[in-house]
UniProtKB/TrEMBL annotation:
The keyword Phosphoprotein applies. This is SH3 and PX domains 2A. CDD domains: PX_FISH (cd06888). It comes from Crotalus adamanteus (Eastern diamondback rattlesnake). Residues 129-188 are annotated as: Disordered. It is found in: Cell junction; Cell projection; Cytoplasm. Residues 140-179 have a biased composition (Basic residues). Residues 4-128 form the PX domain. GO terms for molecular function: phosphatidylinositol binding; superoxide-generating NADPH oxidase activator activity. GO terms for cellular component: anchoring junction; cell projection; cytoplasm. InterPro entries: NADPH_Oxidase/PX-Domain, PX_dom, PX_dom_sf, SH3PXD2_PX. Pfam families: PX. GO terms for biological process: superoxide anion generation. Keywords: Cell junction, Cell projection, Cytoplasm, Phosphoprotein, Repeat.
Amino acid sequence: MLSYTVLDANVVDVEKRRNPSKHYVYIIKVTWSDATCQTIYRRYSKFFDLQMQLLDKFPVEGGQKDPKQRIIPFLPGKILFRRSHIRDVAVKRLKPIDEYCRALVKLPPHISQCDEVFRFFESRPEDLNPPKDAVNKRIQTIRKKERKKERKKERKKERRKKEKERKKERKKERKKERKKEKESEPVG
């Protein structure tokens, strides 16, 4: 066993890369047992490779002999798609891959602390120096999300204001109607 292990792994976003070719990577925040936290970047194909290694190394836990004994989490499957759908697929996989990572590090130590899992979550040189365009894209994405959130908040505020005005207007109308009714009642 290793001297330190992965305590938590959260997939926080997906990011487009252009080198060596266009592809998407998942941004993963890894928390280690020595209290360090690192950000790593992995393509879907690396998750798939890890899954295959784990299923080969742990056939019982992978449910190959008895599906009821499976404890290794399922990974979202490979999808055939056209180029225009790559981002959609990457984004759709975000939550299931996050759930996969979280479940993986919570498995019994003989799996969660095995060499394959350690090497997968271990920081690599390309994790320490991500491409500049990737960092800029991430900042743009964050800003875009913040602006979208702000616009949504403003629209909600505007809707509340309009609703309040409509209620006020209806109240005035009802008051006028009651006044008219009182005036039209015969005095008696």
